[in-house]
């Protein structure tokens, strides 16, 4: 879900960029701001790396993100008319995004180009995301500089400004770690029971959602529903899915979040206890009683015993919810932590099965304590790339218990290896 400078200046809610918004901006003669820049024709593709494009991208990234709109003529910084933008195709788009990565240090990732309008009257809107890697520098030969937007102008930062942005980068990283700690500790303390092992998974966006309007109950319900659709792609319908044991259709309000509480209340279903939450800033939390579950063969495990497939399925649900929150709220990179909370005296045992379906414990590593697994996840990555992130997170989590093979999450083979 996009919320750009154009949405803000036109008084619109988050949503796609469209032709009517461009026409409205021209009719209102909207002025350029520190996060909106009108441009005429596209730069020839061969000239992109050495043009002003990298400087414009870096300047907006250093200010907190913004929007470059090609195909709108400006007079005294105000939009006055639409103009023919020039040739734009997949090759040009690839060159545009490549310039944002190769001509800027550190690179500005997740720049997106949107083709808006009908043939002959299109504009190209380039969305530059906010980033925690400020300051972004431009190198020209032996010299470098840090550009930044100052209202409708792009200027070069002084030494003190550069120093302040480096300090902000390190502060953001420290705060992100603290936020992840708080999410994990809260979940592990308030949502678990001591009688069994619990899987706790938390994700915090590196740049939290800050739009003027918090997600409402309907939007939260949509995110949970989309997460269920996602997890069926990643791991299928088999296994114990935590999202099948929560009331996602009627999420409850919590402290700056929407909570899908446990609905496995009967004695016969208590082994499926789970809960999940989507926070207003885009964070995601999930907890599920992972020990003492019933296996697909009907075997009942003890409280400290965990079927490796249950870890995979739970992570599939969790990552499906991260993906849904990212899409709905327009977020990109998340810091993720997954752990297993167990306070019993018997070591944890992560089990798997052999090719015949029999329990295979020869390589299981008894764990007196499970070390939480941490990763940075690119939540808005291409579908196949995100699929592999789900797989690799699950692999890290089961490997710690001595289990090698991921059984349920099977990403598609790369195209160059098919056939």
Main features:
419 residues, 4-stranded mixed beta sheet
Explain this structure to me?
With 419 residues, this protein is α+β, with helices and mostly antiparallel strands. The protein contains eight helices and 21 strands. The strands form six sheets. It has a seven-stranded antiparallel β-sheet with strand order 13-14-15-16-12-18-21, sandwiched between helices. Strands 1-2-7-6 form a four-stranded mixed β-sheet, with helices on one face. The chain is elongated. The two termini are 37 Å apart.
Show unreliable segments. Answer: 415-419
Outline the biggest β-sheet: 7 strands, antiparallel
Beta content: 15-25%
Rg, alpha carbons: 24 Å
Shape: elongated
Q: Biggest sheet, strands in spatial order?
A: 13-14-15-16-12-18-21
Tally of alpha and pi helices: 8
Can you count the beta strands? Answer: 21
Which structural class do you get from the secondary structure elements?
alpha+beta
First and last CA, distance: 37 Å
Order of helices and strands: HHEHEEEHEEEEEEEHEHEEEEEHEEEEH
What would you call the quaternary organization? single chain
**Mean pLDDT over all positions:** 89
What share of the residues lie within helices?
A: 25-40%
List the helices and strands and how they pair.
Blueprint: H1 5-10, H2 19-27, E1 36-39, H3 53-63, E2 66-70, E3 72-75, E4 78-82, H4 90-102, E5 104-105, E6 112-116, E7 123-128, E8 137-140, E9 143-145, E10 147-150, E11 153-156, H5 159-190, E12 198-205, H6 217-235, E13 252-254, E14 257-260, E15 274-279, E16 284-289, E17 305-307, H7 308-329, E18 333-341, E19 349-353, E20 359-360, E21 373-378, H8 383-399
Parallel strand pairs: 1-2, 17-19
Antiparallel strand pairs: 2-7, 3-4, 5-8, 6-7, 8-9, 10-11, 12-16, 12-18, 13-14, 14-15, 15-16, 18-21, 19-20
């Amino acid at each position: 879900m996009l919320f750009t400078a154009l949405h803000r200046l036109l008084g619109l809610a988050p949503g796609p960029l469209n032709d009517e918004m461009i026409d409205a901006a021209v009719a209102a003669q909207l002025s350029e701001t520190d996060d909106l820049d009108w441009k005429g024709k596209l730069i020839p593709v061969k000239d992109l790396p050495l043009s002003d494009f990298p400087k414009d991208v870096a300047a907006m990234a250093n200010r907190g993100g913004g929007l470059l709109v090609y195909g709108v003529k400006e007079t005294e910084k105000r939009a006055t008319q639409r103009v023919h933008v020039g040739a734009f195709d997949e090759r040009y788009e690839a060159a545009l995004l490549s310039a944002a990565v190769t001509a800027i240090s550190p690179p500005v990732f997740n720049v997106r180009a949107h083709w808006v309008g009908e043939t002959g009257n299109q504009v190209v809107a380039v969305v530059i995301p906010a980033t925690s890697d400020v300051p972004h520098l431009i190198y020209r030969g032996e010299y470098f500089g840090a550009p930044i937007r100052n209202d409708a102008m792009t200027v070069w930062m002084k030494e003190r400004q550069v120093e302040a942005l480096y300090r902000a980068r390190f502060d953001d990283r420290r705060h992100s770690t603290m936020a992840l700690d708080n999410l994990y500790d809260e979940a592990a303390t308030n949502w678990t029971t001591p009688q069994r092992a619990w899987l706790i998974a938390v994700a915090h966006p590196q740049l939290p959602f800050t739009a003027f309007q918090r997600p409402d109950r309907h939007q939260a319900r949509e995110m949970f529903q989309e997460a269920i659709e996602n997890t069926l792609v990643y791991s299928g319908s088999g296994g114990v899915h935590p999202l099948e044991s929560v009331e996602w259709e009627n999420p409850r309000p919590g402290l700056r979040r929407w909570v899908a509480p446990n609905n496995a209340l009967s004695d016969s279903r208590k082994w499926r206890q789970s809960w999940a939450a989507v926070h207003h800033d885009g964070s995601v939390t999930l907890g599920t009683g992972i020990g003492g579950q019933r296996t697909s063969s009907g075997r009942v495990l003890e409280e400290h015993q965990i079927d490796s497939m249950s870890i995979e399925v739970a992570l599939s649900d969790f990552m499906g919810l991260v993906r849904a929150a990212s899409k709905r709220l327009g977020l990109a990179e998340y810091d993720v932590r997954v752990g297993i909370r167990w306070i019993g005296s018997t070591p944890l045992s992560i089990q798997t099965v052999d090719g015949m379906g029999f329990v295979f414990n020869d390589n299981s590593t008894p764990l007196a304590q499970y070390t939480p697994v941490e990763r940075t996840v690119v939540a808005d990555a291409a579908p196949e790339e995100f699929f592999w992130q789900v797989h690799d997170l699950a692999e890290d989590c089961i490997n710690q218990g001595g289990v090698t093979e991921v059984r349920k999450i099977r990403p598609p083979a790369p195209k160059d290896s098919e056939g």
